[in-house]
């Protein structure tokens, strides 16, 4: 059963996390309410844009959250993943399935009307992901802003800096550590898979096609019933555009059900399943599966760290006029 602390204790902890963020993020020149005078409506515009898009398409929140991860892990949180063109991050096959770009572009267009040349695409990406979590039932996170947009975007930087769904625990720990994120952050941020969907190819390594043209599952860590369901949804020769929900039971709700799935051996990716089968992370998985409030509190801390990875501030980078292209 979910443990529920008093409203005071939960609020007190959230305020403490915000205070700690203010202290820790100051060195990076990110501050809360960065746009309070230059563009007071900035965060409201982003929030309303995300809400409107999500009401029309419930898959939007998951896409925005994934977009943030792919941005921050490559070149830092600088909107480099938004840049279009040959050889950019966005052109790499690993990023071909990313979505949510139109939501960011819509928010940017509005902000350029109200506050031209003021709000960075990098901040919009971070705020949109933050709002996506809250709008689907997740915790409220007050993130500092002031990020600048990067000018460099290279496809060659993508693969060495993002988690592959077949990664081992050791590989994930090494990558997260290189971004200043701990093992606890790794387990917590993996909870992003409580919303969103994946193409069949993302977990095809868990199955093998037999001589009769049918799939059999070769990953014995998977629950048999769940594996059978996945094979029906993604048979050999299936349309590559088919997607499967990360969490089939509460697909569009940000909750702790993801961790319950791991306990039941129903993690969609190998990189999900290993969180419970590895002794280094299994205890935290169990704790989060039993305590949604605890997961939410940890999410606030880890999300603040994620959105502060290698940010550009001050005179670094630029404020793009149009998110898919660098300024002339």
TrEMBL record:
Intrachain S-S bonds: 39-115, 72-77, 121-323, 200-234
Cofactor requirements of the protein: Ca(2+); heme b
Residue numbers binding heme b: 193
EC number(s) from the headed UniProt entry: 1.11.1.7
Known function: Removal of H(2)O(2), oxidation of toxic reductants, biosynthesis and degradation of lignin, suberization, auxin catabolism, response to environmental stresses such as wounding, pathogen attack and oxidative stress. These functions might be dependent on each isozyme/isoform in each plant tissue.
Name of the protein in its database record: Peroxidase
Pfam family of the protein (one): peroxidase
Gene3D superfamilies membership: 1.10.520.10, Peroxidase, domain 2 (1.10.420.10)
GO biological process: hydrogen peroxide catabolic process; response to oxidative stress
Transport listed as a keyword: no
Annotated Plant heme peroxidase family profile domain residues: 29-327
Main location: secreted
Alphabetical UniProt keywords: Calcium, Disulfide bond, Heme, Hydrogen peroxide, Iron, Metal-binding, Oxidoreductase, Peroxidase, Secreted, Signal
């Amino acid at each position: 059963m979910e443990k529920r602390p008093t409203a005071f204790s939960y609020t007190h902890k959230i305020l403490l996390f915000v205070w700690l963020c203010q202290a820790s993020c100051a060195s990076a020149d990110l501050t809360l309410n960065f746009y309070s005078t230059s563009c007071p409506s900035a965060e409201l515009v982003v929030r309303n844009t995300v809400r409107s898009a999500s009401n029309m398409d419930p898959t939007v929140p998951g896409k925005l959250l994934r977009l943030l991860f792919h941005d921050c892990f490559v070149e830092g949180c600088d909107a480099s993943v938004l840049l279009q063109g040959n050889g950019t991050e966005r052109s790499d096959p690993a990023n071909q399935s990313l979505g949510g770009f139109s939501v960011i572009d819509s928010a940017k267009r509005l902000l350029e009307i109200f506050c031209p040349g003021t709000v960075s695409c990098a901040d919009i990406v971070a705020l949109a992901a933050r709002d996506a979590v809250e709008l689907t039932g997740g915790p409220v996170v007050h993130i500092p802003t002031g990020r600048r947009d990067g000018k460099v975007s290279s496809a060659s930087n993508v693969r060495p800096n993002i988690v592959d769904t077949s990664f081992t625990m050791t590989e994930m720990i090494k990558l997260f550590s290189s971004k200043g994120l701990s093992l606890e952050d790794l387990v917590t941020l993996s909870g992003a898979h409580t919303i969103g969907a994946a193409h069949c190819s993302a977990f095809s390594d868990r199955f093998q096609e037999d001589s009769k043209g049918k799939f059999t599952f070769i990953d014995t860590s998977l629950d048999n019933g769940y594996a059978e369901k996945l094979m029906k949804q993604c048979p050999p020769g299936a349309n590559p555009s088919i997607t499967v929900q990360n969490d089939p039971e509460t697909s569009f709700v940000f909750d702790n059900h993801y961790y319950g799935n791991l306990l039941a051996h129903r993690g969609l990716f190998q990189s999900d399943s290993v969180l419970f089968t590895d002794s280094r992370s299994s205890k935290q998985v169990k704790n989060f599966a039993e305590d949604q409030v605890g997961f939410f509190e940890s999410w606030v801390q880890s999300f603040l760290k994620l959105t502060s990875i290698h940010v550009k501030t001050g005179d670094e980078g630029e404020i793009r006029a149009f998110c898919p292209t660098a300024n002339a």
